Amino acid sequence: MKLKRFVSIPVLSVITLVGFVYYITVFVFIEDWIGLQSSAGFLNSLIFTGLASLCVFSFLVCVLADPGGVPSGFLPDVEESYASDQEIKRNGVVPRKCDKCSSYKPPRAHHCRVCRRCVLRMDHHCSWINNCVGQRNYKPFLLLVFYATAATTYSAAIIISCIIKNWDTDVSSTSKTFRIGIGSWITALSLTLGSLLIWNIYLASHNMTTIEYHKGKRAAWLARKSGLSYHHPYDVGFYKNATLVLGSDMLKWLWPTATSHIKDGLSFPTIRESS
């Protein structure tokens, strides 16, 4: 059952962390800064609650969503199977067989040792969601990182504002140490998540997975040694790459379950097809 994925120390740690950050931000720092009963306090708590809720919702989708498995009996297209070596190199699509599953796998699919199956367009296995990040749940994963970054950054701003306001009036050294410690921790967390967000935006804008990035570095090095140039075969342009992940309707870009645009993950547009 998918609910068993919640029975995991990393997953439970994330849930506990979100609850802790929400509690101290709203009921400790906003209350101490401007008060929850004030209009400004209510507005700030409402905005932060919205960001935290979207973060939790994205997290739940990531945990429960199937990243996409290779259909049983999958066989590569005959045309691809008998393509010339030169054609295969141009397309970047090579018929491959999984040593673990003993069956063919589509382009960009990889075997996950943890999930014990091949995952479509596999990016990586994430312990924090106890699930693979692949074809069908990459968008909610990207939005999870986005909303987590936004929420922690907003929380850090509130905590820092509270520290500045009460710096002269707060005479207790223990209280100051607590506030500064929490503020530093939240700021570090937001910077870490922000770095992860920038990394995933880079990958999405180039229509690349983490696995493909590392393989691409070696391919580029080998190409340079041969006096050639390497270009990621699935990078079909910034906007097209974005729509492949987020969808063509920009109004639905920030909604984790708006994934009707996601294809079967058995084939992907390449540079040659787009040119």
Automatic annotation (TrEMBL):
It catalyses: L-cysteinyl-[protein] + hexadecanoyl-CoA = S-hexadecanoyl-L-cysteinyl-[protein] + CoA. It is an enzyme of class 2 (transferase). Residues 96-215 form the Palmitoyltransferase DHHC domain. InterPro entries: Palmitoyltrfase_DHHC, PFA4/ZDH16/20/ERF2-like. The chain crosses the membrane at residues 7-30, 42-65, 141-164, 184-205. Its EC number is 2.3.1.225. It is a multi-pass membrane protein. Pfam families: DHHC. It is found in: Endomembrane system. GO terms for cellular component: endomembrane system. It comes from the Eukaryota. Keywords: Acyltransferase, Membrane, Transferase, Transmembrane, Transmembrane helix. One of its GO terms (molecular function) is protein-cysteine S-palmitoyltransferase activity. Belongs to the DHHC palmitoyltransferase family. The DHHC domain is required for palmitoyltransferase activity. This is S-acyltransferase. The lineage of its organism: Eukaryota, Viridiplantae, Streptophyta, Embryophyta, Tracheophyta.
